[in-house]
Amino acid sequence: MGCVACQPILDTKKNVFSYELLYRSSLDSEKYDATDGSAATRELLSTAFGDIGIQKITGGKRAFVNFPAPLLVEDIPMLYSKNILVVEVLESVEPAEENIEALRKLKKQGYLLALDDFTFPSGYDEIIRMADIIKVDFVQYRDRREMQRLLNRIRRFGDKVLLAEKVETEEEFELARRMGFSLFQGFFFSRPKLHSGLHLSPMELSRLQLLRCLS
């Protein structure tokens, strides 16, 4: 049985904008518990889009999914609709040319790109320019002056949607909103909700992936 945790992402009026899909190995898992990031994302995609059905999980809202570099290079996001999938670029993705080229292809095809746990790493300028959404960890930036400096640097790259992660109180929500964040995620709004479904057989999964490619 495959499992997916789903956490809402809200707008400034606390309406659901989208959901982030999170890997869980079982119904007893309370946090990310995979040892292989690529394998975890593959299983999450198979479970969410195949076994359970993405409509059942998100109700037609967009779905943020974390993608490590190998899956970006393999063009795995392109198996899924750009109208549903938001490609979340993990902080571990290096600004190597093959990774940048993979992101260029996704951008050209119309996919939304989000940068996860953003801290302004060196050499990321082109990736930042391509990004539509930038996620900032509110817990990591307890020093609000440091966070403001980060946001000022991000704004030099144009109009980016800012998403505050790990918002845990009403006060943090209000502060993030005043600082210019327009999307919010965290335990203050909702803990991740688990969904489960029966795994498809290898033949059924191959058929599903073929149909996606053809469409």
How many distinct helices? 8
| Strand content range | 15-25%
For the biggest sheet, the summary is: 9 strands, mixed
Order of helices and strands: EEHHEHEHEHEHEHEEH
Report the uncertain regions. Answer: 198-202
Please estimate the helix content: 25-40%
Mean pLDDT: 88
Got a strand count?
Answer: 9
Q: Order of strands side by side in the largest beta sheet? A: 8-7-6-5-4-3-2-1-9
Note the gap between the termini: 27 Å
Shape, per Cα inertia axes: globular
Class by helix and strand content?
alpha/beta
Radius of gyration, CA atoms, in whole angstroms: 17 Å
Could you outline the blueprint of secondary structure elements for this entry?
Layout: E1 2-10, E2 16-24, H1 37-52, H2 54-58, E3 62-67, H3 69-73, E4 85-89, H4 97-108, E5 112-115, H5 125-130, E6 133-137, H6 144-155, E7 161-165, H7 170-178, E8 183-184, E9 193-197, H8 202-214
Parallel strand pairs: 2-3, 3-4, 4-5, 5-6, 6-7, 7-8
Antiparallel strand pairs: 1-2, 1-9
Report on this structure.
This protein has 215 residues and is an alpha/beta fold. 36% of the residues lie in helices and 23% in strands. The chain has eight helices and nine strands. A nine-stranded mixed β-sheet has the order 8-7-6-5-4-3-2-1-9. The protein is globular. The model is unreliable at 198-202 (pLDDT under 50).
